[in-house]
Amino acid sequence: MNVKLLIVLALLLYAVPLVLWIVLKLRKKQTAAEEESVMNWMSRQPGSRKENPALNRFYQRSYVRSAQVPLFRGQVKRIRQRLAVVSPYDELTLRKETMKITYAVLLIVVGLILALALLGRSLPVVLLGMIGCLVLNGMLIDVFVHRVENRLLRDFRDFLEDNRHQFQATRMTDEAIYEAAQLADHDMKLHGERIHEVLTSKDPDRSLAAYYEVAPNRYLKVFTGIARMIMEYGDKTTAKGSLYLHAIGKFVQDINFDLLRRSRLSYQLNSLTLIALAPILLSFPLQRWAEKYFPVMGEFYEGRIGSAFKLMLYAVAVGAYVLIRKLAETEESRYTPKSGGIRWEKKLYHFRFVRFVVDRFVPQKHTKTHYRLSRLIKESNSPLMIEWLTLRRLLYALLTAVFVTGMFVSAHINQVNRIWNAPTYVKGGLMIGRIDGAERKEAELRTELDGRIMREIDTDRKGWEDTVRNLVRESSGTAVNEIRQNETAARIVEKLGRADSEYLRWWELLIAFAAGFGAYFVPLGVMMFQRRIRGMDMQNEVDQFRMLISILSQFDRMSVQVILEWMERFAIIFKPALQRCLLDYDGGAAGAMAVLKNEAPFPPFVRMVERLENALERISIQEAFDDLEMEQEYYREQKKETMDRLIESKSNWGRDIGFAPVMFMLGAYIIVPFLYVSFMQMKDLISQLGQI
């Protein structure tokens, strides 16, 4: 392990904690009063969970102090914002959960950097690991937040079961919800009490609209709306009993399907993320093993081709990891555009020079390219405008071209360094077998001799080859015969020629330009992939619409517009199309429904919209959807089949993508190097036979 790497590890392990300790000590007096108030507040909270007081105090103090450190302030704030959307935590619980996730992410990231440092044993590897950890950081936050969302869904399912029993005893919706909330876990208890406040407020409709804005998932939104309708119009006895209890049963069944889908997807795909990233860690010990038992292979790994294969392996592994994470996503936010804050693309686009350059690449309006880009942005549910997307594509292209050019320059510098400092073995040796100490020491002495002579040579002068031969004779003396002197001189001349030939060539710039051109289309490829995944989940959402309509159709005075409003509230994938339909509904219901079918041409969804069209004038809503109850068993089996097909499709995609880096590693680090070394050995053998 070299000195530079030791310096980096020392900075990581000692200097950073030392700086943080000094900063925290300086701010201790400022935060002491706030810590004391937090501890007093914690002791007064009746609904807080019973946990280790010392651990809870540690989380609270960590939150207060980390908010004062610039290194962690943004990270803590980002995690807090994500958790605040998922669950209505009280302030103390929100701080504690935020610090739990912060420490978990920090431990994983630091552990990964140390693993790369120990396995790679070089400064570039550590820097590469740090860059990768910046990308991994956001993904780890998503993973931990998803766990909170899944836990909330399970708690909501148990809350509904308790609510059923309480309603059967009291026949009062608000009282049943309040009693069930007292039996629920801490997170669901907060939601239950919030729903009870909505139902019992002076202006329930306004409170309900406010709750719709902060509800973490659509099940809570729709359940609260159904409970509000039951409170206003009263429960109704249907052929299957109480309408409210029947709706609760539907919710429990749908949540169970959703939890089962999430758990099966997690089981199928989570291990593939490790398989996708494993080649990055395995490449370092594999390379050291090959160089130890097949010494000639070191020339391949340190050469331009080997460096290019390394970069390609890293790119394939990270790309596969990102795509598998996209496949494994199950939370609702994956189809919800991120509207919070100001996007960096928007900030950058405001500069006059940047806007001038980007506008030259933006396709003109009313052209086919502009229409296709607009449609792709809508279908992938991206929050970007065409100008912002073009700016992102140009930056990807520019950074990729600069990075590839830098890697070519680095490869040339590394190759020159190997020519000067790498041990010089005698050509014609075997390609297999370990190098013993005596042979390695002899090779290092050759390198020292070559370097001493090479430093005295100026290749710009004429006749420098003769100067090399004269210096070799002077340094060798009479102890070495003329044949060995000629071999040494030829070796040094070859080294100097190879060192002079290491410069940036035109075709390398062409490759960098081609890589940048390919990166220009990467954002489009990611959006197409997201559109493909989105299409897989459409049938699942249509099945959930059927569940919702089967409940709403039982209410009296139900209209098509009200059903569309509920569908828009419950929708994720079809939400933009439903929103536009509702905006145009007052201008003509038939025209708005036709536009809805046009913007969402998914056949099962279109058939559902056609039933709603029939309910506009011809028949009632209950008659239009009467087969939903009659064919309930069929739709249940159909939904199960759809879920199995969706999971199987995503699993197949995940296996193909997850094992791609492994296959590439086998080819780039084993098969191709062996072929390269075999050809080089054969070339040397033929050369020796020719001399004989």
Automatic annotation (TrEMBL):
<feature type="transmembrane region" description="Helical">
    <location>
        <begin position="101"/>
        <end position="119"/>
    </location>
</feature>
<keyword id="KW-0812">Transmembrane</keyword>
<feature type="transmembrane region" description="Helical">
    <location>
        <begin position="269"/>
        <end position="287"/>
    </location>
</feature>
<feature type="transmembrane region" description="Helical">
    <location>
        <begin position="657"/>
        <end position="679"/>
    </location>
</feature>
<keyword id="KW-1133">Transmembrane helix</keyword>
<feature type="transmembrane region" description="Helical">
    <location>
        <begin position="6"/>
        <end position="24"/>
    </location>
</feature>
<feature type="transmembrane region" description="Helical">
    <location>
        <begin position="394"/>
        <end position="413"/>
    </location>
</feature>
<feature type="transmembrane region" description="Helical">
    <location>
        <begin position="125"/>
        <end position="145"/>
    </location>
</feature>
<feature type="transmembrane region" description="Helical">
    <location>
        <begin position="307"/>
        <end position="324"/>
    </location>
</feature>
<protein>
    <recommendedName>
        <fullName>Type II secretion system protein GspF domain-containing protein</fullName>
    </recommendedName>
</protein>
<feature type="transmembrane region" description="Helical">
    <location>
        <begin position="506"/>
        <end position="529"/>
    </location>
</feature>
<keyword id="KW-0472">Membrane</keyword>
